[in-house]
Design goal:
The protein is mostly helical and 119 residues long. The chain has one domain (3-118). It contains five helices and no strands. It has helices at residues 13-28, 43-61, 63-73, 77-86, 92-118. Helix 1 packs across helix 5.
Amino acid sequence: MNYDNLSQYFNRIDLIKDTANQIIKDFDMFGLEIKFSGNAYNAYEELFEQMEPKINQLINTNQSKFMSVLYRIDLSDVQINKAINENSSETFSAIISDLIIKRELQKVVIRKQFNNKNA
């Protein structure tokens, strides 16, 4: 499942909330606080606006922690380079923040599909 196939899940409130919780959990492992109001209708914007400055700060001040976040979330160099090529007008921190949200949603969807098959 690639990121293009995720659009069908953007309106699933249960998946959006699970994605927000996954982001909160992953960022918390690095001492980075992300909050979510529970409003799934503006979840992307809410999460993005909190994450992007934190990602930007990590890029500029703590490359090691930044790389650890990418590793934890499981973003590859290939995914990052592809996104940079497709969104050259965006800042690097904005591209990474967008990728993190999409990757976390992808993990939630895959986990849910796997659990449904085993139920």
